[in-house]
Specification:
Length: 363
């Protein structure tokens, strides 16, 4: 891999070394920390005028402007990755006319009346949305060299996508009443999803080369990894998770070698996730009824760490000290935002002190 210097992250070489240590779970002086602070000297980026609500999500010039506005408006302190982050445009692929664009995002409208009918998801060469997503990423890649990394787009994972195509309540009934048909539809998705993912990976890598891989949460790795999740699993039992979700994860784990698993507001499936060695990183996002990441979730964090897995959490600045003091820095990534670069630098310096030998003991 050729290490590149980026205008939005001049110290990227040093930060990349910390990411290497993160994945290796090497003993270091502090956790990996992505800290964002307002940039007072950045260029003011004007957003193009929107002609429709679809334009907000699918117009290449508008998406490029959003990326540049973020990068020009924020200093990437600590180990923050200079990247385009995740765009919602990728969730359109294969969905035909069953999309709803709104201010908050892109929704997929249910289109399968029964689970026994053929899968109504058609990514591939004839997918008109693929061409629109291609246009967005080609525009980002025009601007990216020596400035930032373009991360690959992502479609929803298999069970979540099937839930959207079928309907949330309907898929829950199907899991109970028609489990073999659900498995058949998931099996149909695999080959289609693989081709869809490979298309965008090849497009991006051909233009920017091997610059590593970035998760939507801001984790970077030299080696390829896959960001997996199953938000629909919040509504199912561990037994159903083992029956319907783990087989999909096993296939992704075999293909990619290592997974980053996003646990969206549920903890009941943690032990099953920890039973898979290829799940290298656990990321936790509390549900709306829970407290934010911090002291309330220490039991979960410690369980992840004691099994030798990396932990990825977005933490409010007021909870950073508590988290750093009570968790091991090895394999820990904390993302947060502060109101100034000075505050970010102070936080990085203090984090080293909070990781003193009297607090942490490497295993």
């Amino acid at each position: 891999m050729k290490m590149t210097s980026y205008s939005y992250k001049p110290d990227w070489y040093q930060a990349s070394k910390r990411w290497d240590a993160f994945w290796s779970m090497d003993a270091i002086d502090r956790p990996c920390m992505s800290i964002f602070a307002p940039k007072l000297t950045g260029e003011e980026i004007q957003l193009p005028e929107l002609k429709s609500i679809e334009d907000k999500w699918m117009n290449p010039e508008y998406q490029l402007a959003l990326v540049l506005r973020h990068l020009e408006g924020n200093c990437l302190c600590g180990d923050a990755v200079p990247c385009s982050r995740n765009l919602m445009a990728g969730t359109t692929t294969g969905c035909g006319e069953f999309l709803h664009f709104h201010e908050g995002g892109i929704s997929i409208r249910p289109s399968m009346k029964t689970i026994t009918e053929p899968l109504n998801w058609h990514p591939g060469l004839l997918d008109t949305w693929r061409f629109k997503v291609d246009a967005i990423y080609n525009r980002l890649l025009d601007k990216a060299p020596e400035h930032f990394i373009v991360s690959t787009p992502g479609q929803y994972p298999h069970l979540d996508l099937l839930s959207m195509l079928r309907g949330n309540e309907e898929i829950m009934l199907d899991l109970i009443m028609n489990p073999e048909q659900v498995k058949a539809r998931l099996h149909e998705m695999r080959k289609l999803a693989t081709e869809n993912e490979e298309h965008f990976c090849k497009l991006i890598e051909k233009r920017q080369g091997n610059v590593g891989y970035v998760s939507w949460t801001g984790i970077w790795s030299r080696q390829i990894f896959f960001c997996a999740q199953a938000d629909a699993a919040a509504s199912i039992s561990p037994a159903m998770f083992e029956e319907f979700v783990l087989p999909e994860l096993d296939i992704q784990g075999e293909r990619y070698g290592q997974l980053h698993y996003h646990t969206c507001g549920y903890k009941q499936h943690l032990e099953l996730c920890l039973s898979r060695s290829y799940i290298r990183v656990i990321q936790y996002s509390p549900n709306p009824k829970e407290p934010t990441n911090g002291p309330a979730h220490m039991e979960f964090y410690r369980r992840v760490q004691e099994t030798g897995r990396c932990l990825d959490i977005d933490v409010a600045p007021e909870h950073v000290e508590f988290v750093v003091r009570h968790l091991r820095p090895e394999g820990l990534h904390i993302s947060t935002s502060v109101n100034s670069v000075t505050k970010a630098e102070e936080l990085l310096e203090k984090a080293v002190k909070w990781c003193g030998k009297d607090i942490h003991h490497s295993t």
